[in-house]
Specification:
The complex is a heterodimer of chains A (732) and B (155).
Chain A lengths: L1 H20 L3 H12 L2 H8 L2 E7 L5 H8 L11 E8 L4 E5 L8 H13 L6 E5 L16 H28 L7 E3 L2 E4 L4 E4 H5 L3 E6 L23 H5 L15 E5 L8 E6 L1 H4 L5 E5 L2 E6 L2 H9 L2 E5 L9 H9 L12 E5 L2 H7 L2 E9 L11 E7 L2 E6 L4 H12 L6 E4 L14 H13 L3 E4 L2 H7 L6 E9 L5 E9 L14 E7 L15 H19 L3 H7 L4 H14 L10 E10 L2 E12 L2 E12 L6 H20 L5 E2 L2 E2 L17 E6 L18 H13 L5 E2 L11
Parallel strand pairs in A: 1-8, 3-4, 9-19, 15-29, 17-18, 21-22, 25-28
Antiparallel strand pairs in A: 1-2, 2-3, 5-6, 6-7, 9-12, 10-13, 11-12, 14-22, 15-20, 16-17, 16-19, 20-21, 23-24, 24-25, 26-27
Chain B lengths: L1 E6 L2 E6 L6 H8 L18 E4 L2 E4 L5 H4 L3 E3 L12 H9 L8 H14 L5 H7 L10 H16 L2
Parallel strand pairs in B: 1-5
Antiparallel strand pairs in B: 1-2, 3-4, 3-5
Helix pairs in contact in B: 3-6, 4-6
Bound molecules: FE2/S2 (inorganic) cluster (FES) (2 copies).
Chain lengths: 732, 155
């Protein structure tokens, strides 16, 4: 056993040297954690049993390949990826750095562990997103939980099963290959002997590192994975018992609130806090441009903020009217964009030559507005300092990054910061940063007491970050027979996700141009995929109509990707594409695409009534490999469609000179019951293909399908998202 | 000022300014955190509770206005460890994702079914329009309410 422990430490040292050169801050931070993985400590915490760790060592070719890639989303953690403990009572505790935000991964990951470990799902407990207890994780985003974490945990579980089988084989002095694990028990079919996992484990303290990939159970043989298991802790949610960050308390806790500047980028020039400080129990904190208060009651904190007299000076900032021009201008020349991805170009053949051979060409510009995530649980954090150590409970998608943010801000080592993410009231890409955590921690430090801070809806709609606005120019050429020959696609500021076309075009130039965004921007469900699909699939529709061809037939003519063809065909069949012609009062549209391992085709039906547009029916065909939980998947797809309706039809952040003009739900409209169309979902379960995530891609083809349906009915081509914030524009 | 509230069948004494929203009193003083803050603007419905059986937005209800009236929160729907039919229907239909809107949806639906034991789909959507679900689980919520209504109708 001590040999095993030494192996762990050895590997850490080796990794340490590697990691020094590694630019990935996360890998370095993680190492420190690796040292803390003291076997005895662990068993003290959990009781005896078997601890199995997946070890993605630094020397694996695949790993270093992933590491060499620049895009941060593709970087994988490099040491322990997951671990699992089987206790003497048979309880299986699984540790993952992923967070539950409503995407139901607590359930779907448990299913996968139960499957490989051959143990009832009720014996599994997931510890998630706790920087002290769980392995490092980049974050919960990019539809990566299912393909990456899911398969890692399956490997850990399969290895754990193997460990147990070996133990039984040693006990009975038989060949391990002959033993069968099922339902938490190992059986020897020859002798009919059997032993339950708890009985096998009793009195053991065993650590196992997995060095090789164990064989996994193929999807066709799944019993627990692949089935619609209900949300594991669903009862806590329907009874109001689940504690979100915003519901938590600590002894002596105060409520915090921040004084927001008069505009973005404003500097505090003076502050008179004397009135606020007179309120009982109120503590006012000023630190640079940060001004906040802490008080024993929320309403006193709110009152104290209103009694602060502050002067701010803010620079002149762009207006909404000049936004798109500004983005294009700021993307060229000396000014560097603020996007971490940097510019990227993809080229194939020569667009110039392609255009020269085209019989028809088309040149169009598409735009998308800034939109807000509007998670129903606003950003929230509860911070507590104890003897120089900081613990923060907060709803974030990136607990380890937030831990590092906090460590930096307070100039303490990361090991002294613990970030815990309670299952959170959703995020949709909006909770990557640690704003609320920093604010709460700053106030808690000054007050010497735990502080909880929950953003108001107005703060959410102002001080969070937005889905980037963007401009997309598309220039294309086709031959008379409908063959695409040239495609130029320039995306300003939206982002590079799903920027490439899935259609076969011999001459392409596709470029993403980062720009200076007037508003704080960041990731949003699907990143730029909805924007790029809106432009691409809208443009494809325009070309089809220009050529007098059916939009579906035109797409299929230029498409050989079998998986994408399959969803287009499935959607068209189920929807009854082509069965009814669009009329002035009813239009049909189709769009599709592929992103992050998911393939989607969406058909939309819109009803028009005196300039009012209503989406009445959406049919979506979706394929993401082998389905892990069909019911959870349907829920995700349906939810993505409903949320996507907002960005497609009416959501837009309005701003002027560093201020948000519509920071309230009465002004920023999000989809409600009455907006929901009839939704039909066609899932193509490809058990022969690896499972991909499904939180994002189901959203990407919705807006173009709706825009195309509106055109089919009215002849009005809408090239800006949102499409109809104030009803249908007049023709012309 | 001292105020006596009748919450989930029990008398509770609290100390609060009379204009303080009921939401904060429930959450901060009575630890009834199933009732959520979503906007504080009367726009999202996450703070819905029943006052004398009628759904109200507790973020816009001064605590003094609820004094002496019967207040029911999500925590008060469960009886002797048995979920309310609407809670059970939400669980069965898995009519949630992140679940943050769920308690208020259930409270609003329970009020609706009290008044009209078998509402049409249209009626459900109309009456629940003020409750937001950003995760977009509306179709399942409607299905769950209909399910609960048919259970409620059975003898
Ligand atoms: S919190 Fe009361 S309506 Fe939103
Ligand atoms: S389930 Fe997330 S807001 Fe409704």
């Amino acid at each position: 056993m001590s040999k095993e422990r030494n192996a762990l430490i050895d590997q850490n040292f080796r990794l340490n040297e590697e990691a020094v050169e590694d630019r990935d801050h996360g890998a370095i931070q993680r190492l420190a954690y690796g040292f803390e993985l003291d076997r005895r400590e662990f068993f003290k915490l959990l009781g005896g049993g078997v601890l199995v760790c997946a070890w993605a060592g630094p020397l694996r070719a695949q790993e270093s390949g992933a590491r060499a890639r620049e895009n941060s989303e593709d970087k994988l953690p490099q040491s322990i990826d997951g671990w699992l403990h089987i206790g003497e009572d048979g309880t299986v505790t699984v540790y993952t750095g992923k967070a539950e935000l409503g995407q139901n991964i607590r359930t779907s990951l448990s299913q996968q562990v139960a499957e490989e470990l051959r143990t009832p799902i009720s014996s599994i407990r997931l510890v998630m997103a706790d920087t002290t207890l769980t392995p490092f994780d980049m974050g919960t985003f990019g539809s990566r939980t299912t393909p990456i974490m899911g398969s890692q945990l399956r490997k850990v579980a399969a290895s754990a099963r193997d460990v147990l089988i070996q133990m039984a084989a040693a006990r009975w002095q038989v060949d391990a290959a002959k033993l069968v694990a099922a339902n938490g028990t190992i059986t020897d079919p020859a002798t009919r002997k059997s032993v339950s996992y708890p009985d096998l484990i009793k009195g053991q303290q065993l650590v196992k590192l997995i060095e090789n990939d164990p064989p996994l159970t193929p999807a066709e043989k799944w019993h627990v994975a692949g089935t619609p298991i209900p949300k594991l802790d669903g009862r806590a949610f329907v009874s109001g018992q689940h504690k979100y960050t915003s519901d938590m308390t600590r002894p002596g806790m105060l409520y915090g609130k921040v004084l927001r500047p008069s505009a973005f980028h404003a500097n505090l020039t003076s502050l008179d806090a004397s009135e606020a400080e007179k309120l009982p129990g109120v503590k006012v904190v000023r630190d640079g441009n940060f001004v906040g208060v802490a008080s024993p009651e929320q309403h006193t904190a709110t009152r104290a903020i209103s009694l602060l007299h502050a002067q701010w000076s803010a620079p002149q900032q762009p207006t909404e009217a000049e936004l798109f021009e500004y983005l294009k201008k700021s993307s060229s020349g000396e000014r560097r964009g603020n996007d971490q991805w940097g510019p990227s170009v993809y080229e194939l053949g020569s667009v110039k030559e392609g255009l020269a051979t085209a019989e028809k060409t088309l040149n169009q510009t598409y735009t998308v507005a800034y939109i807000a995530h509007v998670p129903l649980e606003p950003r929230a954090a509860l911070a507590e300092w104890q003897e120089g150590k900081l613990t923060v409970w907060t709803g974030t998608q990136r607990p380890f990054a937030v831990r590092d943010e906090l460590a930096q801000a307070f100039r303490i080592p990361s090991e002294q910061v613990r970030v815990i993410v309670p299952d959170t009231g959703s995020a949709y890409g909006g909770k990557h940063t640690g704003d609320a955590a920093l604010e709460a921690a700053r106030l808690a430090k000054a007050a010497g007491k735990p502080v909880k801070l929950v953003w108001t809806r107005e703060e959410e709609l102002t001080w969070a970050y937005f889905r980037p606005a963007g401009v997309i120019d598309v220039k294309s050429g086709v031959r008379g027979d409908g063959t695409l020959v040239a495609w130029q696609f320039d995306n300003y500021n939206s982002g590079p996700a799903a920027i490439r076309t899935p259609y076969n075009i011999p001459n392409q130039r596709i470029e993403y141009h980062p720009a200076d965004s007037p508003l704080r921007q960041g990731s949003y469900r699907g990143l730029a995929a909805p924007a790029n699909h809106f432009a691409r699939e809208g443009h494809m529709d325009e070309l089809a109509h220009m050529l007098g061809r059916d939009p579906l037939e035109f797409r299929l003519k230029n498409l050989t990707d079998q998986r994408l063809r399959a969803v287009f065909e499935a959607a068209a069949r189920k929807f009854g594409w082509g069965r009814e012609k669009s009329s002035a009062s009813r239009g049909f549209g189709i769009a599709g695409g592929a992103e992050k391992g998911g393939y989607v085709a969406t058909c939309a039906e819109v009803e028009l009534n005196q300039g009012e547009v209503r989406v009445s029916r959406v049919l979506e065909a979706f394929e993401c490999g082998a389905v892990v939980n069909p019911d959870g998947l349907r829920n995700q797809i349906s939810g993505a469609i409903v949320q996507g309706l907002g960005g497609a039809l009416f959501e837009a952040i309005q701003f002027d000179n560093g201020r948000i003009l519509n920071p309230h739900l009465a002004q920023y409209r999000v989809p409600r019951f009455s907006d929901v169309p009839q939704i039909e979902i066609e899932i193509l379960d490809r058990k022969d293909l690896p499972s991909a995530g499904a939180g994002e891609t189901p959203m990407v083809a919705l807006a173009p399908a709706i825009a195309n349906a509106i055109f089919a009915a009215t002849g009005i081509r809408l090239r800006s998202l949102p499409l109809v914030p104030e009803g249908l524009p007049k023709k012309g | 000022m001292p105020i006596t509230l009748l919450v989930n069948g029990a008398e509770r004494r609290v100390e609060a300014p009379s204009d303080q929203p009921l939401l904060y009193v429930l959450r901060e003083q009575l630890d009834l955190t199933g009732t959520k803050y979503g906007c504080g603007e009367g726009q999202c419905g996450a703070c819905t509770v029943l006052v004398d059986g009628r759904p109200v937005r507790s973020c816009r209800t001064p605590v003094s206005a609820a004094a002496g009236k019967k207040i029911t929160t999500i925590e008060g729907l469960e009886q002797d460890g048995k979920l309310h039919p609407v809670q059970q229907a939400f669980l069965d239909a898995e009519a949630f994702q992140c679940g943050y809107c769920t308690p208020a949806m259930i409270v609003a639906a329970a009020a609706l079914l009290n008044e009209n034991p078998s509402p049409s789909e249209q009626e459900i959507m109309r009456r629940m329009e003020g409750n937001l679900c950003r995760c977009g689980t509306y179709p399942r919520i409607v299905a769950a309410v209909r399910q609960a209504s048919s259970v409620a109708r059975k003898p």
